[in-house]
Amino acid sequence: MDRDVDGELGKRFREGVAKARAAVAEFDPELVVLFGGDHRRAFAEVAPTFAVAQSASLLPEGTIPAEDLNVPGDLARDLAYALVAVDFDIAVCRGVALDHAFGQPLHHYLPHVTGAQIIPVPVNCASPPLATAARTIAFGRAVGEFFESIDKRILFIGTGGLSHSPPSLEDDRHDKTEAERRAQIQAGFEAASKKIKPEWDNAFLDALGRWDEPELIRMADRATEDAGVGANEVRTWLAAGAAGGGRPILPLAYEPVEPWITGMGVAVSAVA
């Protein structure tokens, strides 16, 4: 998407992103809690189910520069302790370098990435066994409950594709070099572009718009079978939605974009 600097592809989706960016600007968050996945880059040898980053940076990819994130370390530490206290055995990350799963939403939705306070919350969506959808919602709810006592305007973001099946994640190898990963994506690109499932995507967005938890759980737990390995990233949407109170999250745009091998959607909840 970011390599398409002229914005020729995904025009409907880009319009939705612009609307979401405007909503974020109006809300003017003082803190961003970002639930994101990983593509076996930061978490290859060890893949925690859930994690909280106390310090982090972004990997340089496309138009995203290498840059440190402004993570409020003490608050992230307190969140980690609070989650352990309610029986989530999370990992704590320090100095972790995060890829476009985190970099893209930050750069598309925030005016100044390095100036914003951001707590990255990685959710394993790529290296099975994955948390069940119900457990992911419970985790997001626990994160939201911690922040209820924090007197700040807090934006929760869940980021990841809808239906897609990245060639680099269709096997379980964790030790690929970056060159091997890119070669695998290139070799499988044409086949992957035909694996988008618009019916599944629209059904998921419809359930999100009603916050139909049983249906969201059913769909997320069958994401690999019904919508490709990359569709497991909707777990981050569920975590963010639960953190925000489980309100309906209304779709702004949806578009299947074959050159991006992904069903692209964007949705926002009403401000509480």
Task: Describe the structure in brief.
By secondary structure, the protein is of the alpha/beta class. It contains nine helices and ten strands. The strands form four sheets. The protein has a three-stranded parallel beta sheet with strand order 7-1-8. The chain has a three-stranded mixed beta sheet with strand order 4-3-6.
Describe this structure in words.
- With 272 residues, this protein is α/β, with parallel strands linked by helices.
- It is 40% helix and 18% strand.
- The protein has a single domain, classed as Protocatechuate 4,5-dioxygenase, Chain B, CATH 3.40.830.10.
- The chain has a three-stranded parallel β-sheet with strand order 7-1-8. It has a three-stranded mixed β-sheet with strand order 4-3-6. The protein has a two-stranded parallel sheet with strand order 2-5.
- Strand 3 and strand 4 (67-68) form a beta hairpin.
- Helix 4 (133-147) runs parallel beside helix 9 and helix 6 packs antiparallel against helix 7.
- It starts with 10 loop residues before the first helix and ends with a strand.
- The mean pLDDT is 95.
